[in-house]
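Sorry to interrupt, but I need a hand with the structure work. Leave the record below and I will have a look:
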Amino acid sequence: MTDFVPSLSDYPYTVELSSRLQDNDENGNINNVAFYSYFDTAVSRFLKAHCDTPLRSSNVVTYVVSSQCQYIAPASYPESIFVGLRVVKVGRSSVTYGLTVYAGESKRRVAHGQFVYVYVDRKTNSAVPVPASVRESLNAITEAF
């Protein structure tokens, strides 16, 4: 265990998003489910921008098989949202992403968590190796801290 608390600049890939009024709950805070959407958007944007495997038209699909989020501080609409993304681990057929959400002009840390994706054959629904071209892109943002 470490005392290190990463800042947005510690992440090798970042995404800026706009919070939406509908992200807020009845207390005026961004609802927990919205953070999972932010995580998913960051991973999807990275894959689309840096991996040349067209997953929608390929024989391989990805499934989120595990996710978790820890909430640190409240955020609310209309604050800007910043998501830091890194790869914690690349396995044979899975990838563990580490993500942290920052909010507002001060980019205060509001949540962090992990997503685990598994690469699966679309027809057989069996796990397959992470495609080589994807693995190469993932290695470029593998956790450095």
In short: The chain has two helices and five strands. The beta strands are 13-18, 60-71, 80-90, 94-103, 108-121. The chain has one domain: 8-139. Helices lie at 32-50, 132-139.
